[in-house]
Specification:
Spore_YtxC, alpha/beta, Sporulation protein YtxC
Length: 311
């Protein structure tokens, strides 16, 4: 007799193949027929179903039934994560990002994607934890309703699973707004630097390691740095005091060089990217001169007495 079944709409051959494969893989090597059970797959008119049949009079029936529920639930959970999760995420994004344009929505979705694939434990959970939530919900559903319409269950139930997705979206939104705030802040700094009066003709910025920088003037003399304090922006009609997180950026803004030669081996380092973004064409990147190589090897910048590093 039929014990329980799960069916779903499949809108492509790929989805149909996945629905078949994920359950089939769970039954390999288990010899469930010896316990009086059999799984069968049916498809018709854009719909596919897995059905579990069993013989109650079989000696292994009572002992094996919980395992059959587990096989079906775990296999369907695999299918949901592979084929349905992006759609579920889209429903949440549509609700939470109602005031965003298409480009902003795409950026939030891009932040979500690696979190969906993550297998590392974080505040946003893991793929394994979502799988466990789905399996638990499906087990409960199959025991209450023998014939499960998967799409309906996902729409109206599975609240614990959808909460996990919602937390991923919330995290992605926080990241998006932080990124946008940072971009706006960088734009303001760039605007200020553009109108700022220059104070020195040339600065050599030597990037030694991570956030460690050394500044030299045009004669390669170590520069006396201004105190580490907030940046005061003064433009016509505007005076704004701002805290700049990266000390080197704050000091470069305070020094206000006309030109800057940036000696670095890591052009893609975040602080380096910020400096080039803010100071634009004032910056010349140097990462392969003799002095850059010397910094890389010894941590020091050495010059011959007669040699100049002017731009």
């Amino acid at each position: 007799m039929e014990l329980f079944a799960v069916w779903t709409e499949v809108n492509s051959q790929s989805a149909e193949d996945c629905f078949y494969r994920f359950i089939k893989n769970k039954t390999k090597g288990l010899h469930i027929s010896k316990q009086g059970f059999r799984f069968s797959f049916r498809k018709h008119g854009g719909k596919a179903a897995w059905i579990c049949k069993g013989t109650e009079s079989h000696p292994g029936f009572k002992e094996g039934l919980p395992r059959m529920y587990q096989i079906m639930a775990a296999g369907v959970a695999d299918y949901i994560l592979d084929q349905k999760e992006e759609e579920q995420l889209g429903h949440i994004l549509k609700r939470e990002c109602v005031n965003m344009d298409a480009e902003e929505l795409s950026r939030v979705k891009t932040i979500c994607e690696p979190l969906l694939r993550s297998r590392f434990e974080t505040e946003q959970g893991t793929r394994e934890r979502r799988h466990a939530k789905l399996t638990e919900g499906l087990l409960q559903g199959m025991k209450e309703i023998p014939i499960i319409h998967l799409d309906g269950v996902l729409r109206f139930r599975m609240q614990s699973y959808k909460k996990e997705l919602h937390e991923i979206v919330e995290y992605a939104l926080d990241e998006f707004y932080m990124d946008r705030q940072y971009e706006e802040f960088m734009s303001l700094l760039k605007y200020f630097v553009y109108f700022q009066e220059t104070k020195v003709p040339l600065v050599h910025v030597v990037h030694k390691d991570q956030h460690e920088f050394v500044l030299y003037d045009e004669y390669m003399r170590p520069m006396v740095l201004p105190p580490d304090e907030s940046v005061v922006m003064e433009m016509p009609g505007i005076e704004l005091e701002m805290e700049v997180e990266d000390m080197i950026i704050s000091r470069l803004i305070s020094i206000s060089p006309k030109k800057m030669k940036l000696h670095t081996q890591t052009e893609d380092f975040p602080v380096i990217r910020s400096i080039t973004q803010i100071f634009e064409d004032r910056v010349e990147i140097c990462h392969n001169c003799r002095h850059c190589r010397n910094v890389k090897e010894t941590g020091q910048l050495a010059l011959d007495e007669e040699e100049s590093l002017e731009l």
